[in-house]
Amino acid sequence: MAAITLIEAVTMALAHEMRRDESVVVIGEDVGVNGGVFRATNGLQKIFGDQRVIDTPLDETMIAGLTVGLAAQGMKPIAEAQFDGFVYPMLDQIICHAARFRTRTRGRITCPLVLRVPWGGGIRAPEHHSEANEAMFTNVPGLRVVMPSSPHRAYGLLLSAIRDPDPVIYFEPKRIYRQYKEEVADDGEALPLDVCYVLRDGSDLTLVTWGSQVKECLEAADKLAEDGISAEVIDVATLRPLDFDTIRDSVKKTGRCVIVHEAPRSGGFGAEIAARLAEESMYDLLAPVERVTGWDTHIPLFRMEMNYLPSVARILSAARRTLARSA
Asked: Does the keyword Lyase apply (predicted)?
């Protein structure tokens, strides 16, 4: 068992599934010879050949169409959008076709594809390279939306995504690609989709988050513990379909909830969770739900980038506000 980074866990999962299943192919811009812009596919073409690790032209619309076609014909394609902001030309094929095949054909044809999307800010990249656009996919029936937050979950959730018979959007938080290492066994053991992961038990407050913000929430929980406050930390992991039961059970126990995400506040996925809590858990809440989010603007370039992203200080401020209030 090796200690590896999140990006290395992605590579390991891809290689494992390509060895296990000859119908798995990887396609995208620079995924072959160069091993991907973030080196997620590094070395795979040398192992599996250029018929299974396929470099494409710089044409996201074509990549998406090719991926949908391969999936509809029995292959298991894994496409890469080099950056989150490059995914928009793919939306027509993903939303109008991939997400609808099962319904359109009354279950006769499924579309087992994975679209890997390096996601989020924090790497000092220019425009179109630092988007947090997960919410638009959570509104599309027929898609699964998955976002790991650690090397272990990156490996296990990607295995499940590749094996799933329906299309999966697999967001990879690039800010934590190489931030830390974790021991991960290349044992082919998949982690379940469609469930939240309770990373820390607590009794006073629930912190709900996903992706790169998990690290900040865990750090905030540590600081709250120094003051005798017990915070439960939930990693949503699969945004669609949402495992709301885990969130509801936690809030029933703690009575307070802070939702943290990098995407802009208005229309962010945190609003969906807050609305569900208002509908189903109103009488369990001891204080209004708080949200700590990005701002309603495009992520500022370079100098102000880290001020845009939710910080431990902002999470602590929201936690203490909700702890001081009564519903």
From this structure: no
- In terms of Cβ atoms closer than 10 Å to its own Cβ (0-12, 13-18, 19+), residue 180 is exposed
**CB under 8 Å to 110, separation ≥6 — which residues?**
71, 101, 102, 165, 166
Q: Give CA–CA dist 111/90, Å, rounded.
A: 15
Could you say which of 16, 97, 128, 129 is catalytic? 129
Residues 260 and 234 sit within 8 Å (Cβ to Cβ): no
129 catalytic? Reply is: yes
pTM (2 decimals)?
0.96
pLDDT tens readout for residues 84-133: 999 999 999 999 999 999 999 999 999 999 999 999 998 888 878 999 99
Read off the pLDDT of residues 216-252 as tens digits, 9 standing for 90 and up: 999 999 999 999 999 999 999 999 999 999 999 999 9
